[in-house]
Amino acid sequence: MNKSSIVPETDERAALRDSVTALVSRYGHDYFVARAHAHEQPTALWKELGAAGFLGVHLPEEYGGGGGTLGDLLVVVEAASAAGCPLLMTVISPAICGTILARHASHEMKQRWLTGIADGSLKMAFAITEPDAGSNSHEITTTARPDGNSGEHADRGWRLAGTKYWTSGVDEADAILVVARSGSADSADGTRKPLSLFVVPTDSPGLTWQPIPAALVQPEHQFTVYFDDVALGPEALIGDDGNGLRQVFSGLNPERITAAAISNGISLYALEKATAYANERAVWKGVKIGAHQGVAHPLAECYIAVTQARLMAARAAELFDDGADAAEASNIAKFAAADASLRTLDQAMQTHGGNGLSLEYGLADLWFLARMLKTAPVSREMVLNFVAQRSLGLPASY
Length: 398
Ligand SMILES: Cc1cc2nc3c(=O)[nH]c(=O)nc-3n(C[C@H](O)[C@H](O)[C@H](O)COP(=O)(O)OP(=O)(O)OC[C@H]3O[C@@H](n4cnc5c(N)ncnc54)[C@H](O)[C@@H]3O)c2cc1C
Fold this sequence. Notes:
By secondary structure, this protein is an alpha+beta fold.
């Protein structure tokens, strides 16, 4: 595949992309799949990415980061994915948790957690989804109540109770960033306590989890997580009590943008494989299959879709980094990237004929990961709701 200048990239970003590609290519897709099948984490790769400064490229230098931007992390995540290692934990630990902590945590909390997230020496999972409150986060019931009779300021800490669902990577994480109800006051309509954010170490007594068997081939696994009256010190609270909704939003656009980067990386990886195969394989009188328009045109259409999705992701990151409202762009980027990657992976498999289904060719095992990104971290339908209501001004149905 030829290089294109459509998605703008500074010399520094291009160098960053080349460095990440070189590092991850030494591991490659076989390493990713082998870790997944062995139920092992990609520890060596993660450590190298951290040590090279790639995981914390967007985090403040004061806390061990590179002092760069989300646009830099977008390049890291996409390049790793395009090199065959679409690591979901890059979306969760540095992108969601790192950004929330960088923006809202105290100096002490940043020293305790952010430095490790930046250099890859620790990981943080993120838990917002609940069994009875999936897309509708306003209905979550996991609650942190002030410990003992310490009154409204919880200066003796908190007791956390509830259940989270589909939490990725808890088994490999040192802590979980938990979205819970708390707050000394009820919400404006008086019906619910407002949300707060907590960092819960994974070795906390009362915290347990159970794996959710899933079809995905990836080193990360998902869990139902139980908080059974988990005792938390006052220092576990991120930012302000009751301000969790506003605070969590600073992590959700990075989540969408880096999820788009995973999808776009899968697309680039699949296109690379498909074009290489179509330039080699000949089944009719020595003519390469790529010469047949029935093979070439669908791949060209995929390339157009992927290029549009990458451009949208770059724009969303640019808006976020400029401090502008990036919600519309992040949602559209995530939607476009997930759709493009499913289409591209499917077409790459089709280009390989029967070999598209063979595990040897490294495409079929990505199917459920690409498919998952149509549903998570935000579903296709919830993006369409956002666009219908916020971009088009149509009424909400729910
Ligand atoms: C592999 C994987 C990893 C995940 N990792 C994490 C994680 O680390 N942390 C975390 O907190 N969560 C995680 N999730 C959860 C994920 O964010 C949710 O699955 C997703 O947000 C959808 O929520 P739900 O599954 O409860 O679906 P539901 O909310 O039950 O929705 C079911 C279906 O109905 C549709 N729907 C719902 N409401 C509407 C509406 N108003 N209009 C139109 N359609 C609607 C949805 O789009 C969906 O198609 C993960 C999920 C998966 C599959």
